[in-house]
Amino acid sequence: MNHAMANALDRIVSRKRLEVAAKKRSVPVERLKERIAELGRPRNFFQAVVDHGSTKGTRVIAEVKQRSPSGGLIRPDFDPVDIARRYHANGAVAISCLTDEVDFGGSLEFIHAIRDAVPLPVLRKDFIIESYQVWEARAYGADAILLIAECLSDAQLIDYKILAIELGMSVLVEVHDTESLYRVQPHLSFPHSGYALLGVNNRDLRTMTTDLGHSFRMAELVDDTHVMVSESGIRTPDDLMRLRAHGIHIVLVGEHLLRQPDPGTALAELLGREPREPAKR
Length: 281
Fold this sequence. Notes:
The chain is an alpha/beta fold.
């Protein structure tokens, strides 16, 4: 992994270690397991986003976040539930919810609030470095988790993936470079297929710029583009068309939508459909 990228992730991972240690002291894993026992079944995130036949359109996982290290404050008037309702009304198939507070303005509390407002499955997007966070994700209502390959060893990746699947969640395994892609690809369908997606992040963590071409190049090395998700730097219907031409039919979009006056209208325009207002509650 390149040096600058290691620095950006190392800084966050070091902070996460301290955060997780503090959380374990305040909410032991046994308490999380009690909460999980009282919850209903997770929604099927994998089923919601993966195409099973028609390959005409693009399915969008729409992201809810207030800020990011690369973009700064993205949305001053931040209302995660209202944003999720606008996404749902305008064609999102799932929601990605940032739960990292320090760098992204997120919260685990947002997950239940979003699930109560919309029928879509919700991905917990965070920097997962310990199994405790997998239990925590489910205890707070997540239907799927993000695992970033560059933050984890092969053993961790496999362990957390198995635990997530045992808890009924799907997994989005994210890679930034070819080295990580080659490393995780053999593990994607283990212990069985139908739960894990492969995310390719188009952001270069050295320069913080995005390049959609990164997904095109990676698609040539991917065993099954049906489970591939292109992340970051997606802004126009033309971007979606170019991705489809490379066999990529799932995207994760956040910052572009959140910078527009109405994220729902922005999503409708991205998908080439008429914007719709959320149903009155």
